[in-house]
Design goal:
Elements lengths: L1 E7 L4 H12 L4 E8 L5 H8 L4 E3 L8 H13 L5 E4 L8 H6 L4 E5 L11 H7 L4 E8 L9 E8 L6 H24 L3 E4 L2 E4 L6 E2 L1
Parallel strand pairs: 1-2, 1-4, 2-3, 4-5, 7-10
Antiparallel strand pairs: 5-6, 6-7, 8-9
Helix pairs in contact: 1-6
The structure holds glycinamide ribonucleotide.
Length: 208
């Protein structure tokens, strides 16, 4: 049974989808804990209601980024995870932290990476006149929103879309691909070869 720790900062809709699908579909894994850098994150209450240990490591209580990363790692390691899942975790993590979980640290980003790393992806995509947007699940490397891509989902941009509508459409795609990627990982169906991810069963790594 693989142990998953999920890191969140806010609403936790990806965390919820992963936890629910894991339980409902009988993955060989369980969500061992949900950790937030914000004690007020809505997702902590959702995790508790699902019976998952939910705790906060408040970044404001740490003097430096390194001190926060170390405290976060201690909290995570108490659950001995096989996989750490960043699901709307909005703090930049240092290289030491990333290296500690290398190869077992996944992130989801609301764009078709390598386009639009960083914040305000939907606004920037609208400003650029993009006709398609999407989301990317990737293994984390020390470079922000960068790393071997596991799966991407493509969503259309319609005339009249605003940031809110686009974000909702992309979020729906995220809820399809993130559980799939996590399931592939815990079932041992992913390989990283020369910096690229291969799904060993030949499943499609793009959802359109
Ligand atoms: C998601 O859209 C996720 O892609 C994004 O935060 C949202 C979290 O929503 N993550 C990032 O922007 C990371 N760079 P959720 O809390 O409802 O899962």
């Amino acid at each position: 049974m693989k142990r998953i720790v999920i890191l969140i900062s806010g609403r936790g809709s990806n965390m919820r989808t992963i936890a629910e699908r894991c339980a409902a579909e009988g993955w060989p894994a369980r969500v061992a804990a949900v950790v937030s850098n914000r004690p007020e994150a809505e997702g902590l209450g959702i995790a508790s209601a699902l019976g998952i240990p939910a705790l906060a490591v408040d970044h404001r209580e740490h003097a430096s980024r390194d001190a926060f990363d170390a405290a976060l790692a201690r909290a995570i390691d108490a659950y001995a995870p096989d996989l750490v899942v960043l699901a709307g975790f909005m703090r930049i993590l240092g290289a030491d932290f990333v290296r500690r979980y290398e190869g077992r640290l996944l992130n989801i980003h609301p764009s078709l990476l390598p386009a639009f790393p960083g914040l305000h992806t939907h606004r920037r995509a609208l400003e650029a006149g993009c006709k398609a947007v999407g989301a990317t699940v990737h293994f984390v490397t020390p470079e922000l929103d960068h790393g071997p891509i596991v799966i991407q989902a493509v969503a259309p941009v319609y005339a009249g879309d605003d940031e809110t509508r686009l974000a909702a459409r992309v979020a729906a795609s995220e809820h399809l691909i993130y559980p799939l990627a996590v399931r592939w990982f815990v079932e041992g169906r992913l390989a990283i070869e020369q910096g690229r991810v291969r799904q060993l069963d030949g499943a499609s790594q793009v959802l359109i």
